[in-house]
Amino acid sequence: MQLANLDMDVLRTLAVAMDLGGFAKAAERLGRSQSAVSLQMRRLEDRVGRPLFRKQGRGLALTDAGDVVLGYARRILELNDEAVAAARGISVEGSVRFGVPQDFGDAWLPGVLAQFGRAYPAVTIEARVDRTNRLVKRIREGGLDLAVLWGNPLPNLTRVKRLPMMWIGARGFAVKRGAELPLALFEQPCMFRPPGIEALERARRPWRLAFTSPSLSGLWAAASAGLGITIRTPLGLPSQLAPLGRDLPKLPDIALSLYTAQASPAPAVARLREIVLDELARMA
């Protein structure tokens, strides 16, 4: 059987469409018309010889064959991008001071640093994992070149996406209707704390502050022990914790933003910024 060569550009369109949730958003991101993106997908199906998409409500979802192709597409694109970045990175040197909130420290940050390190081995990275308010303080002192931040604490940030705030507790945590709700929260200032308390007050739900901590690991420990429930996004949840929805007031979304110190950053900062934006876009 003669094997078909898959078009890299088409594979990238597929990956972007799945990351962003549809052909229309992919077309906007890639600077193409929606009909052009749809044509690319039809050509990909012809090339593979199997249907890759199925109807799901008003939109489209991947078939089993589509899931397989998407998985390989991501691997192919990652190798392609690493090869190009490594070739370009031979002359990229210097250092980058990079900050991220604690939610990103365990699961997300290592992959970003590894990808950047393979492509730009001559660049030194100083990574700081901390609460957003402390990262902002560091920025104002001139101590960071690039930072992922919760909310919009500074002017001229790049808004990346919005993520839902959720009530988080131990699996099986019993939320009793009308009972006083124990909370495990960050010390002030905290971007998640006021929206949660305001939502409880609007719902006239009694609550008490059962635990405070300056670190996310402390909140996870308290919630895991059943001392109280906390407020975060779904990112980086330990396996013993889960979102809680029943009998609790709805919480707002929170912005995820990217700070860049210079409008025209040094090459090392610019390359890391590209990788960070791509990885954040892929994030659910």
How many helices? The count is 9
> Strand arrangement, largest sheet?
4-3-5-12-6
The amount of helix comes to 40-55%
> How big is the Rg?
22 Å
How many domains? The number is 3
Distance between the termini: 38 Å
CATH class label of the largest domain: Alpha Beta
Q: What is the ordering of alpha helices and beta strands? A: HHHEEHEHEHEEEEHEHEEEH
CATH fold description of the largest domain: D-Maltodextrin-Binding Protein, domain 2
Major beta sheet summary: 5 strands, mixed
Q: Classify the beta-strand content into a percent band.
A: 15-25%
The averaged pLDDT comes out at: 89
Structural class: alpha/beta
CATH architecture of the largest domain: 3-Layer(aba) Sandwich
- The coarse silhouette is globular
- CATH-level-4 superfamily name of the largest domain: Periplasmic binding protein-like II
Number of strands: 12
Low-confidence stretches: none
Structure description:
The protein has 284 residues and is of the alpha/beta class. The protein folds into three domains: 8-87, Arc Repressor Mutant, subunit A (Orthogonal Bundle), CATH 1.10.10; 92-159 and 256-282, D-Maltodextrin-Binding Protein, domain 2 (3-Layer(aba) Sandwich); 166-251, D-Maltodextrin-Binding Protein, domain 2 (3-Layer(aba) Sandwich), CATH 3.40.190. The protein has helices at residues 8-20, 23-30, 34-48, 64-89, 109-119, 132-140, 193-202, 216-224, 267-282; strands at 53-56, 59-62, 94-100, 123-129, 146-150, 158-164, 166-170, 181-186, 207-213, 230-232, 241-244, 253-260. The strands form four sheets. A five-stranded mixed β-sheet has the order 4-3-5-12-6, sandwiched between helices. Helix 1 (8-20) packs across helix 2 (23-30), helix 1 (8-20) crosses helix 4 and helix 2 (23-30) crosses helix 3 (34-48). The longest helix is centred in the N-terminal third of the chain and has 26 residues, at 64-89.
